[in-house]
Design goal:
155 residues, 8 strands, Jelly Rolls, 35% helix, alpha+beta, four-stranded antiparallel beta sheet, 28% strand, globular
Length: 155
C-alpha cells in the first residue's frame, strides 16, 4: 500500500533532513517516497529477528525501537532507534541473516523500502553511499563492543 499524502510529506521531510539521504537528488528522494509503504507495529512486536534474512530497510516515522543481540543465549540491549533514524542497513551489503533483533518499545510506524530500491538510489549518489557505509562501520563497532568480551585493562 502506498503512503497517504500526510505520510508522503512526513517521509519527504525525514529524507530531506537526513545527513545521509538529504544528499540524494530530489528525483531519487521522490522515487523512495513512491516505493515506500507505512507499517504499524504494536508495543512489544518484533520488527525482525537476529539471523533471519532481510530484504527491507526501515525508517522510523514514530515510536521507539529497541535493538538486541544474542550473547551466549542472553538478549543484550544495544541501542534505541527513534523517529528520523533507520534500521536494516546491514542487509544492503550482505545476504545472510539480520545482525540483531529489533522490537517496538512503544506503538511504532515505520516507512519500509525494499533493499533493491535503496540500492538503486545509493548507486546513483556516491556521497550518500559513503555516508551510509561510514554509519554502518560505527554501528558494527558499537555492536562488537556490546557482544565482545571487554579488553583487559592495560598494565
Amino acid at each position: 500500500m502506498s503512503l497517504s499524502s500526510g505520510d508522503m510529506r512526513r517521509f519527504r521531510n525525514l529524507l530531506q533532513s537526513s545527513d545521509i539521504f538529504g544528499a540524494l537528488s530530489e528525483e531519487d528522494r521522490e522515487l523512495l517516497i513512491r516505493k515506500a509503504t507505512a507499517i504499524s507495529f504494536r508495543k512489544g512486536s518484533f520488527i525482525f529477528r537476529q539471523g533471519v534474512k532481510g530484504e527491507a530497510f526501515y525508517f522510523v516515522a514514530s515510536g521507539k525501537l529497541y535493538v538486541f543481540v544474542d550473547k551466549r543465549g542472553a538478549q543484550v540491549h544495544i541501542a534505541e532507534v527513534l523517529p528520523g533514524e533507520f534500521i536494516g542497513e546491514m542487509t544492503l551489503y550482505q545476504d545472510w541473516g539480520r545482525w540483531a533483533t529489533v522490537t517496538a518499545h512503544e506503538d511504532t510506524v515505520l516507512f519500509m523500502l525494499q533493499k533493491v530500491d535503496i540500492r538503486l538510489v545509493l548507486d546513483r549518489c556516491p556521497a550518500a553511499r559513503a555516508a551510509l557505509e561510514h554509519l554502518i562501520i560505527r554501528r558494527v563497532e558499537n555492536e562488537m563492543y556490546f557482544i565482545g568480551d571487554p579488553a583487559p585493562e592495560p598494565g
